[in-house]
Amino acid sequence: MSPETAKSQETKTKLLEGALRTLTEQGIAKTSARTIATAAGVNQALVFYHFGSVDELLAAACRYGAERSVARYRARFSAVTSLSELLAVGRQIHEAEQEGGHVALLGQLLAGAQTHATLGPATASGLELWIAEIEQVLTRVLAGTPFGEFTDPAGLARAVAASFVGIELYEGVDAAGATAALDALEQLGLLVAALEELGPVAQRAVRHQLRRTSRR
Amino acid sequence: MSPETAKSQETKTKLLEGALRTLTEQGIAKTSARTIATAAGVNQALVFYHFGSVDELLAAACRYGAERSVARYRARFSAVTSLSELLAVGRQIHEAEQEGGHVALLGQLLAGAQTHATLGPATASGLELWIAEIEQVLTRVLAGTPFGEFTDPAGLARAVAASFVGIELYEGVDAAGATAALDALEQLGLLVAALEELGPVAQRAVRHQLRRTSRR
DNA sequence: GTCTATACATGGATAGAC
DNA sequence: GTCTATCCATGTATAGAC
Q: Residue B110 is nearest to which of A114, A169, A198, comparing CB atoms?
């Protein structure tokens, strides 16, 4: 597609950053070769020279951005030992990334993926990076709870990641509502955390009830 | 903006339907006066005659579509008496509306709202219709559970609605993943439902633990 | 490798005929 | 009310100069 010299890499990076900025600041609808090139401070034609098409640039930017964002939180994820801690980390990520819009970015890409065929797989694999982190944590954390055997970490991780993106998008149109939503989830997390700390008798009762119910 | 004759209403409706179809089938990025008019089978200039601008048409379409979708499920929502039933209804809605893409539509609008200033409030009020239904159900249902006093129905309703939109968007890039996510949530719902059916002693233990934890 | 110039398509919006 | 014609901005993509 293009050689691998130092200068080439530099403009490629500029374009990737420009694509991310345009996507977060202007949304998928206003993202074009021109707007990206302007944000990147390079010529519009270079989009096609280096990436072939706008879609492919966006796909590359998705991978690039997701990898960087996830890496930033990998250490914090691996330190999590309980559900309520996981929620706290989620809240931290929300507050830190919201400004940069790095999560709503995935929302923009998900919306764009509907038409731009190239974007679908790229967005999926970008999300997959987040999902993998969350899944690891959930597997580790749920093992020690009364409901470890009744939950599916892989599915839950997907639900958590997708929900997070949804709430991030929602924040764009109703900031107060999004805050209320996150508060409510946090409360819910505390509630589940409380179950982790039940006495042995009560835990056994809960577990027993779960077995009965899940058999239906 | 335009008179209220029968014929006027008819083309307005055509445009609204066309806008919804274009939005769901092509996404916000490919939605334009021309594509909408083609889908509606009317002339492109009528978008501006009847609605002033594309954005205003989209805003109107959002209200129109959300109202119709919510109305379709209002009866079913009001019949819900437990959390697991609520989840089941959610699953039904997912399956029924997925084909028509009426939920991912809200995702497209949320994505578009980032730039199109007019869209923000309209999308928010469209989502609000869903939220209101869910909130009513949650308030009713949670009252009868051990954790009714520890949860915030308004916030939870917002979390549920936004999450649903996120999962719906996610489905577009990874159908299997979205199914796994919904399955996991359903399992989680059964788990919570099980807590509703605990014996009085265990319930008291749970409630006690919740009070202790939430005091921190 | 990068830029300028340029082609051609698509989109927003209006004027004027019917 | 609706359609045709039209203007102009924006977008994708390529050719060719430097």
A: A169
